[in-house]
Each structure stands twice: as structure tokens, then as C-alpha cells.
Amino acid sequence: MVVKIDRKKCMYCGACVSVCPRVALNLKETWVDVNEKCIDCGICVKLCPVGAISLKERKK
Amino acid sequence: MTDLKDTDILVIGAGPGGLRVAIEAGKLGAKVTIVDKKQEIGVPKRCAEGLGGGWFKRLGMEPDPKWAVWEINNARVFSPNGKEIKIGKNQYGYVLERKMFEKYLASEAIRKGAKIKLKTESLSVIKEGSQVVGAKVNEMGDEYEIRAKVVIACDGVDSRMARSAGLDTTNKLVDMDSGFQYEMANIRLGDKHALEMYFGTDIAPRGYIWIFPKGEDVANVGIGIGGNSEKTAKYYLDKWIAKDPRFKDASPIEINAGGIPVGGIMDNMVLDGFMVVGDAAHQVNPMDGGGIALAQEAGIIAAQTAVEAIEKGDLSADFLSKYNRIWLNQRGNQLKKVWKVRQFFEVLSNDDMDFIAEKLGMGEDLLDFAFGNNWFTFAKLFVERPGLFKSMKAFL
User: Fold this and answer.
1) Nearest residue on chain A to B257, judged by CA atoms?
2) pLDDT < 70: residue spans in chain B
3) Residue A14 is part of a domain; what is its CATH number?
4) CA distance, residue A36 to nearest chain B CA (Å)
5) Residue at A60 is within a domain
6) Alpha helices (H) along A4-42
7) Domain of B374?
8) Would you state the pLDDT for residue B66?
9) Beta bridge partners of B222
10) Contacts of B46 in chain A (CB under 8 A)
């Protein structure tokens, strides 16, 4: 599972990229890409200044 | 455009750090290519735009009203109960218009011979063995390689290049501040040329709220809080603004956000053929979160070291580590101390902060206190307030 980024809230500031332990996030010009390396750890969720990132519900 | 694809120095990121690298390296005769993934230099800003007056001379520039848009002659710090902590020294400096400032720096870099490629994303470094020899880039859909003797990553807080090269610059959450800001107009500013800072664990946990004026009634009104705070930076700032009558008739003309690397001064910022500068290397003042000047200061050192390495034909990390040594000596080690000071302030409760403000008043005394100097004077404080001693112990 990967984190979910709300593009309507995202300010594309890149704060999340700097704390991602897997380098799974990538700031493009006006959005953030998340790749499959994401481990859903939630560190970026805490740092985001506007609350644009959330953990997807885990399904088993 | 083939000449761009083989260069002395490839700079990744056209912010203050990267542009200063290009200006300095250009002056020293090196061929520089800069790539930036954005289509416009200088936007969106992620900062409060303050620059201390002392930096102009050190960075070899004159404040130009085109980008140094508002003069600052005072700084006012407020403790949680609203008491002002007097700052001993006169403060002076400017609030910049970042997008104009960076375009000025970019123009200077171009005049010194640099070539800039915009909307050009760097994908990864190219390595031959342990040696970084360039980067793979994508320019508006066109993917190609740029070869360089030295690659200098100045790609900001969202840097990936250092990590792609094998230098771990990942920030810990506790070492990050979360920032949010409105540039607002029609504010009823009191002291129009003063920076104002407001502290308190309720208004800005582990950080502060600032007002940096940019004009008669225009200012950057922002907040920086600890990265692990419970609510978002936006939440705390909105709450504070709503309560302050000065903003009753004001509205934003710009919204900014950003992460600020405040706690991870790096001892090694080089690899073979590779260096990292600015926010990407966590070169930020942990106390005020400022990095515009620090990135440029480091950029100058990095450029000088890179050019010397190229001239000597020694592009090894061993040689480039001269940059580490000079920077740590000149700035980094000092910033590490500032980080310790900040950690002390972080353990203070609102009451502690009010108490210190009441007893000391002077900002410089406060710094002395936090640095552990002048113990005798402060011993008295502990006698009056034993709780502070507990805070101090947590800090040590």
C-alpha cells in the first residue's frame, strides 16, 4: 500500500520527500509522485504542513 | 545544444545555493550548466524571505530595492503571556521578494557564463565505479545525459540526487520543522519595520509564529512547528490569525508551505565527483529556520573547492572534503551549537518561558544562559524556580 496524497490540498513544497526513508516520494512541478517503494510508514503524514497526506486503509 | 551536455560543473537546482555556486564558479573560469525541474526560477517560495544585513557584504552584493523590498530595523520577540523579550543588539536587514532575488542571481550567473536549463528534471546521477560523472535528465520529455567533472546537488529540501548518488541526506522527523505561511495585504501593522516572533507551546509547538513585513500593510505571516506536532502547521496559524485584530481586514495574496531541515548538520557532504549544498545538505539555522544566506555561503565554498579540484585533476571525495572542513569550521560547527540551544528552549513550558522573559529580558543574556555561560547569574533563577533545573537536565 502507498500513502494517498490529496492533490487539491498539496502545496507541492516537498517536505514529505525529505523525510521519506525509502525515497518513494518525488516532487514534480505541481504534484508529488509516490512509487511502490512506499511502506506506508506515515512519517510524511505527520510532517505535511497542510494535512494533504493520509494512510490508505490496509486491506488484507 | 551539445555544449551543455559536457561541462565542468553540473549544478542541480536553481535556488540561492545553486545560483551562487554558478556565479562563483563562473568567476573562477569554470564552465557551468544548471538544471532545474521548474519552469520558473524563484517560485513558489517556501520561506519568510528575511535576510540579515550583515550577509550582503559577506556574499558580495548590494541590496537592490527591486528584490530587497523592505528594510528591517528591529526584531521583537514575545513570550507566551505577551511580554516582549528585548533583543539587546540593533537588528537590521531586509525582507526579500524571493522570485525577483533569484532571477537576479540567475541573471548574474548567466552573465558569468552559466547555461540554465529549466523544466529539466534530474533523474539520477551517472556513476563510473564510485565516481559521479554526470546526471541523467529529462528536459520536457527529452531524456539525455549531461557529463560533468563535478556534480553539485542544490536541489532543496526535496532533494533526491544525493540519495541517488549514495549519500544519505534523509531527514529524521524530529529534525524537521513544518512550515506554513500567508503573504497578506491590508494588515494593521504596528511596527512596520520590525520582525515579530511569537512563542508558546499552544500557539506554535516547538516553534514560533512570525510576521515579516514586506510593505506598509503587507507581510509574510507564518509558522514553523516541530515536525511531529499533533496538528498541522496550517491549523495552528489559522487559529492564531483568527484571534488577532490586526488581521481582521487582511487577506492572503499568496500561500506558502515548506519543510525546514533544522537539526541535521552533516559532517560529510561529498562523494567522488559529487557535492551537496543548501537545504539538501540541511544547511539551515536551527533557531530561526533561515537558509537563504547559509546556502549561498556554502555555495561559494563548494564552488571554490570544485574549481580547485578540476584544476588539480583530483576529483576524489578526499580532495572535495576540503569543502566539509571549511564549511564546518566557518559555519557548521556553530550551527550545531545553535541546535543545542534550540533543544533547550524546546523543553521549556509556557510558564518557564514567561518566567525567563520576566527575569532576564535581554535576548543575549538568554542565549548566554542557554549556551551554559554565565552560570552564576542564572544560578539565582534555579533557586527561584527549581522546575527550570529539570528542564535544563533534560536538555543536557
Assistant:
1) A13
2) 1-3, 86-91, 357, 359-396
3) 3.30.70.20
4) 16
5) no
6) 15-19
7) 347-395
8) 97
9) B181, B210
10) 13-14
More confident residue, A17 or A56: A17
Taking residues A45-59, what's their average pLDDT? 87
Residue B1's pLDDT is what?
47
Report yes or no on B310 lying in a domain.
Answer: yes
Distance CA B98, CA B100 (A): 5
Q: CB of B236 within 8 Å of any CB in chain A?
A: no
Residues of chain B with C-beta less than 8 angstroms from the C-beta of A15: 157-158, 176, 178-179, 257-259
The ipTM (two decimal places) reads: 0.93
Banded model confidence at residue A57, pLDDT cuts 50, 70, 90: low
Q: Is B375 helix (H, G, I), strand (E, B) or coil?
A: helix
Q: Which of B214, B145, B154, B143 is nearest to B183 (CA)?
A: B214
Given this model, what pLDDT does residue B350 score? Answer: 81
Nearest beta carbon to residue B160 from set A13, A23, A49: A23
Q: How far is CA B263 from CA B154, B260, B283, B289, in A?
A: 18, 9, 9, 10
